[in-house]
Amino acid sequence: VKVKIPFGNKYLDAIFSVPEKKPTYGVILTHGAGGDMNFPHLLSLAAYLASHGVLCLRFTCKGLNVAYRAKAFKTVVEYLKLSDDYKLSGVFLAGRSMGSRAAASLIRQLSQDDDDDGFIQGLICLSYPLHRPKLQSKLRDEDLLLIRCPVLFISGSADEMCEKQLLEGVASKMKAPKKIHWIDKANHGMAVKGRTTDNVMEEINMEVFSWLRENVKQEHK
């Protein structure tokens, strides 16, 4: 289902992947610095989640400013929260690369604004860009260290923007419940020599879904 979400004087293009059964929770998904919501990894994840009963709303927001992207993300969250078509008890924010930075930034803002009503239940970071290539001394970890909700990182062990030890070091300092799933030998674009994209995506999709299930279950115990 294609929708246009009002954002300032513009609209954000977005697409719902809707499960057959009425979903109780959803995932909002966005792309990295390049590309848009039709990036193959996002299409694959959205289709997988919808086929497993999870509503997925993915959107395009061009713009290389993290604050601007976070604002767009907030607009999409509000839109979904007020939607009459889908009454959800909660959502998880997910993004690839820069999209995951924007999601982390938004969650940190909301938790500081006391605007946190528990609607956002967690964060999924696909290829979180912890640092620029070869610039390991400047970590983009300030939002991560202040987040309280559960976080899942899926990163390639050969990601040139997220050195393995550095992410594990940041994770050990985080207050939030977190999990890191390493895709062996994958680079920032999740490409692995000798493996097809579909094969890698299957691993990622299954990991995301099983983590979601664990974290939703805990909510409803």
UniProtKB/TrEMBL annotation:
Signal peptide positions on this chain: none
InterPro entries: AB_hydrolase_fold, KANL3/Tex30_Abhydrolase, NSL3/Tex30
Lineage: superkingdom: Eukaryota
Pfam families to which the protein is assigned, alphabetical: Abhydrolase_11
Domain KANL3/Tex30 alpha/beta hydrolase-like: start-end pairs: 27-207
Organism whose genome encodes this protein: Grallaria varia
Protein name, UniProt field: TEX30 protein
